[in-house]
Write a structure and sequence with these properties.
alpha/beta; D-Maltodextrin-Binding Protein, domain 2; 2 domains; 5-stranded mixed beta sheet; 3-stranded antiparallel beta sheet; 19 helices; about 45% helix; Sugar ABC transporter substrate-binding protein; Bact_solute-bd_prot1
Length: about 425
């Protein structure tokens, strides 16, 4: 389940080959749609094999999937599931090569970004053509809609995660604050940071200057049709000026702090808070066990956007599948509430299904930091959504916005002028 950054970049770079590769695929001899995939089911009694690909889940979860597959095959005696698991870095090339050869897998595990890129190229089926409203409604709306482009749903949400607020209770108490009544909004978090700074000399938290800061504060990065930049507004100016003020005051460390730096600052008790996913726990548990013991996790304070940004893994069905109907049925089975609940318990992940969150596993705590983070993260799933999905050249757009933020906040560039320049750069990227 490790999300390797290099593999993610390879995914985004590789997707530009999809149109060419799809065109190179030979059409099926019968029962095909315009994209070359079978739209019908198998004949009555016909034995079929569905090829199911996952990412980096063997051998840790081999027993879970063997049991899931066995249960499905018992209920569907004409279907055999051929499960293959690949490293994160390898799955993209294998998938693209498979599509080009005309021997596509039937059900594939991808992240939301790449699933949407595949969808925008017409390489995966639209689940809206297969699912009932009840089936679609089983998933959290924001997470399900993260892969909906122009009304077409290109993936089923699977396991996911959202950020929480980690607090050093020692520093919080030294500042005269009560960790049992944590901040609920970004404004309250800033006030806590000011008191931390005044009473302890420490900063509130470290921040990476990335594009997600805009939607967190209620600013749309692109227009509704994703054709042009939409962030050059007074609201964005106010958000940037506020962050710059917090950094000038020392409430937020004045630098572009990536995740590694944030771990260092929190481990060294240079900051009192960390805004991160549950993987952060593993790092501080190893690097700073005393800080780990003094840390609690609470729901992430919301900004004006009143949303939680999720980081989801999904399941797609390539259009080149020869058994689309059966593949969709298995994809729904893998991601239904019962199986998502079971997988979350085995893998300590969060589900994307509404019914799963009712399970005591997501509400009852043994007071460990891990349990606190899980519960706090689960509480934000109803507001969760991925962002910048289905956008061509999303990586370039995110980089352009990050550079603009750096120029303004770290280098003192004029806010209005830099926003206009960044807007022009993003519009140029979108026009390519």
């Amino acid at each position: 389940m490790k999300r390797n950054k290099r593999g993610f970049i390879v995914m985004l770079l590789s997707v530009v080959l999809l149109s060419m590769l799809l065109g190179a695929c030979s059409s099926k001899e019968s029962g095909t749609d315009s994209a070359g995939g079978s739209t019908g089911g198998s004949s009555a009694g016909e034995k079929i094999t569905l090829e199911f690909w996952t990412i980096a889940l063997q051998p840790t979860f081999t027993d879970y999937f063997n049991e899931l597959i066995s249960s499905y095959e018992k209920e569907h005696t004409n279907v055999k599931i051929d499960w293959k698991d690949y490293p994160y870095d390898a799955v993209t090339n294998k998938l693209l090569t498979s599509i080009a050869s005309g021997k596509s897998p039937d059900v594939v595990n991808l992240n939301t970004e790449f699933a949407s890129q595949m969808g925008s190229k017409g390489a995966v089926v639209d689940f809206n053509d297969f699912l009932t409203d009840e089936q679609k409604g089983a998933y959290f709306d924001g997470i399900y809609n993260s892969t909906v482009i122009d009304g077409k749903a290109y993936a089923l949400p699977w396991y996911t995660g959202t950020e929480v607020l980690f607090m050093n209770t020692k520093l919080v108490k030294q500042a005269g604050l009560d960790p049992a009544n944590p901040p609920k909004t970004r404004e309250e978090l800033a006030e806590w940071g000011r008191q931390i700074k005044a009473k302890t000399g420490k900063a509130g938290y470290a921040q990476q200057l990335v594009s997600k800061l805009l939607p967190i504060d209620g600013v749309s990065i692109l227009s509704e049709d994703k054709s042009k930049a939409a962030f050059n507004t007074p609201d964005t100016e106010a958000m940037i000026n506020n962050l710059k003020k917090l950094m000038d005051e020392g409430v937020v460390l004045k630098e572009d702090a990536d995740f590694t730096k944030q771990i260092q600052y929190y481990s060294g008790e240079q900051v009192a808070f960390e805004l991160a996913g549950s993987t952060f726990i593993n790092f501080i548990k190893t690097s700073a066990p005393d800080v780990y013991k003094n840390t609690v996790a609470v729901p992430l304070p919301t900004g004006k956007g009143n949303l939680r940004l999720s980081n989801s893994m999904d399941v797609v069905v390539p259009v080149k599948s020869e058994h689309q109907k059966e593949a969709v049925d298995f994809a729904v089975y893998v991601t239904n509430a019962a199986n998502q609940t079971a997988f979350s318990k085995a893998a300590n992940t969060l589900p994307s299904t509404k019914e799963s969150i009712k399970d005591p596993f997501f509400t009852q705590s043994d007071n460990t930091l891990e349990a606190q983070a899980k519960i706090a993260s689960a509480q934000g799933l109803d507001k969760a959504a991925d962002y910048m999905v289905g956008v061509p050249n999303a990586k370039d757009i995110n980089s352009a916005i990050a550079r603009g933020l750096q120029k303004i906040i770290l280098n003192g560039a004029d806010v209005k002028q830099t926003l206009t320049e960044t807007e022009q750069e993003v519009n140029q990227i979108l026009s390519q």
